[in-house]
Amino acid sequence: MARYEHLPIYRDALNLAVHFEKIVANFSRYHKYTLGSELRNASRKTVTLIIQANNQSDKQQALGTLRDQLEELLLLVRIAKEAQAFKSFNAYSHVVELTAKVCRQNEGWLKSQSQSPQKKPDKSARMR
What SUPFAM superfamilies does the database record attribute to this sequence (predicted)? Predict the structure, then answer.
């Protein structure tokens, strides 16, 4: 099992999940059990996908799935904002900043995986 606690993306995603746990407690009853529940589940799923991606040798597919999960999370955050579930604009903006940070890290990780070193041609093949 690969270690993942040292990854900045893991720490930020975990902070986001914990933040959702705290912020959803301030949602109205209606939003707490609908949007709040979905936000909490999506943020926990994000952390799980990071752990799974770190454990795989070919990370591109898992990171693509993580990208999709983050897009879903952002959509839920936007819906919650439009439904006025957040008690303040600062609560919303902090969530967006944390989510965007995780998105940027995921894109960087995905980019680093796609730029794996090219196999150098064999010297003997060039001499022929």
Answer: IVS-encoded protein-like
User: Rounded to whole angstroms, how far apart are CA atoms 111 and 103?
Assistant: 12
Confidence (pLDDT) at 48: 96
Burial of 102 (0-12, 13-18, 19+ CB in 10 A): buried
What is the secondary structure of 52-82 as a DSSP string? Answer: HHHH-SS-HHHHHHHHHHHHHHHHHHHHHHH
CA-based end-to-end distance of the chain: 45
Taken in order of first residue, the domains within the chain and their CATH numbers are 8-115 (1.20.1440.60)
Predicted TM-score (pTM) above 0.85: no
Residue closest to 50 by CA, chosen among 76, 20, 17: 17
